[in-house]
Amino acid sequence: MPISAAEAPSGASLLDVAGLEAGYGKIRVLHGIELRIGAGEVVSLLGPNGAGKTTLLRAVSGLLPWTGGEARLDGASLRGLNPREVARRGLVHVIEGHRVFTQLSVAENLLLAGYDLPRGERVARIEEALAYFPEIAAKRHDRGGALSGGQAQMLTIAQGLVRRPRLLMLDEPSAGLSPVLVDRVLAVIAQLRARGTSVLLVEQLIEKALAASDRVYALAQGRIVLEATTDEADLPHRLERAYFGQDVPTPLHA
């Protein structure tokens, strides 16, 4: 059981993960994951390197098959769906380290993100996405390869926003960014929440992640070891216990 259980989000969960198990070949990485996210809620998923955070996002978004359990988006199962089908349902995964097409312009990169949309709708969604990032809107005709690292990260997130997600999953969006650009990305997350978009945030900058989130889960050795609201007074102590393993559940089979 997790160290603490936060109150469920008001209303029905948008994403409901129950007993999820997944891994690579014979190596099981996730062990009975239980997680839920409400509409318009920002949730952080924290944990040490190798805890299974990226594996969980890959499993939910259709990049990795499950070996057990269930994941539902707005009550509908995601079992067996590929990433394109999951994205069409409204769950978009921005992958850590995703690279833009360097020989294409910013606008062309965004057009590709919405390739299957009607042209008029695609153009409107591109403008919506660029509105979050004026820095790259001003460079829409520049090649992706001419962008700075921070601008390329903004473009990657904007590509996800073109899909107009109901739930956006961000894997380490601060990686390689300056503190100023990290704050810009977190400001966009706040804007998304204000507009009713849910966000699942995997992040190593713990204080920044908690400041942007409503609730937090901690993952260790492929198991959820903490669930809490971010306003709990003793949360730092609980996170420390979760990270250093005092409360990691003992596997039934070593």
UniProtKB/TrEMBL annotation:
Keywords associated with the record: Amino-acid transport, ATP-binding, Nucleotide-binding, Transport
Under the heading PROSITE patterns, the entry gives: ABC_TRANSPORTER_1, ABC_TRANSPORTER_2
Q: Domain ABC transporter, which positions?
A: 12-246
Q: Which GO terms describe its biological process?
A: L-amino acid transport
Which CDD domains does this chain map to?
A: ABC_TM1139_LivF_branched (cd03224)
- Pfam families in the record, alphabetically? ABC_tran (PF00005)
Q: Which domain of life is it from?
A: Bacteria
GO MF terms held by the record: ATP binding; ATP hydrolysis activity; branched-chain amino acid transmembrane transporter activity
Q: Which SMART domains match?
A: AAA (SM00382)
Q: Does the keyword Nucleotide-binding apply?
A: yes
Which family does the UniProt entry place this protein in? Belongs to the ABC transporter superfamily.
Q: Which PANTHER family does the entry mention?
A: HIGH-AFFINITY BRANCHED-CHAIN AMINO ACID TRANSPORT ATP-BINDING PROTEIN LIVF
Name this polypeptide is given: ABC transporter ATP-binding protein
State the organism of origin. Answer: Roseomonas acroporae
Q: What is the lineage of its organism?
A: Bacteria, Pseudomonadati, Pseudomonadota, Alphaproteobacteria, Acetobacterales
